[in-house]
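I am writing to request your help with a piece of structural work I have in hand. Thank you for your consideration; the sequence and its tokens are set out here:
=====
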Amino acid sequence: MDQENYLEVVDRIYDLPGHLLGGTEVFVPTPEQRLERIRVTREFLDRAVPGWREVRTVHVAGTSGKGSTAWMLAAMLSRRYRTGLVTSPHLFDVRERIRIDLEPISRADLVRVFSDRVEAPCRRLVEEDDAFALRFPEVILACAFAHFLDVGVTWAVVEVALGGRLDQTNVLEPQAAAITNVSLDHMHQLGESIEEIARHKAGIIKNGVPVYTTEEDGTVLSIIRQEAESVGAPLHLVRAGAGPGGTLRFRGTDWTLAMRGKHQRRNAALGLTIALDVAGLAATDCRAALATAQMPARFQEVRPGLYADVAHNPAKTRALAATISEVLAGRRTVLVVGMTDRKEAPEVLAPLVEVADAAIFTRSRYRGTDPSNLLAAWEGLGAGVAPARVVDRPREAMETAIELAGEGGAVVVTGSTFVVDEALNPEAELLEANALYVPPGEAPGVKKGPEGA
């Protein structure tokens, strides 16, 4: 498909109200308005995508690890079933948010399901009520389930985009719910306290639906338990151990994982429990899937010695630091780091001090924090921090880091999704569209799509 035509369709996907109503109102919705959007999304799916409820689903929430958990669970399910996967945000192309057996929806199929299965009925329904002018997260969900039905998906794993209780994905009536963990992130949207954020995450728990979690914090667990008890949902606590060579020790067996790090052992155990106990998969299928399942930008070795890892909050950078210590021990390690303007730099950077031999700070064109401020925050962490510098453009920063790492060294590109996009996106035209698109009512340089880190 022609790139220009595809990007025109992507424009409509990101701003369907603008195309249907002649403009998009940019506002911060109240909780009541968010709940209303969930009702509208459910009604739209029932009317425009009949049969969507027949797809068996698993709903995955959490501050960190929900994408990896969803990916590994989908990999296991796809060994026996046609399996859909919905994740967010995307790295390079919006198609990554909708996958069949881990493969992104094709450009032709995305254009088709949007134009025929979503936009067309949406246009008709808007004539009845302009509430049916679906916004981006709802459009993606509708496109996903329309495509799932078209290709015969029987199981789908759906990652919460933000929070849980007020997220559009909370239209689901799943076979199981999973909550990876809860920590401070997106406070401007979910609340300033761990208790407030936990209540958002626990909001995906449904009446009688089993919920699984690897969370260990007593305060958070109490909130999850209260929510589960209030709706009669069986609560299962999942615990994982370390086997030899970084394997997962689970139920008396060692499981080899393609995804590296202690935190991935917890995520794998969570997905594995649901695969075995809810979907009834055979252990042999699960073992084969876990040994090969690698989600993009989760300590992914893009090419020898170059790693990408989206780590944009303290919980994620703690996990990244532990993984670097485990996997790259003894190798000179240079970090390329860029963050968005809502992140607290010292708290996010502090875990990385012990694992960096050098650091380069950069910024994406979308919401990027001034890298000189990141450098100042880094140097303010103490006299023992590694030498650091600023290189404004992510791709140039990555190339500089490769030179600094030298033969046998390693480079880790981390921070926001948008920095990884600008450093590694293989399609120049798509990168430009990502970086320069301006939704109505927002300032220039705002990237398409409401989510991200």
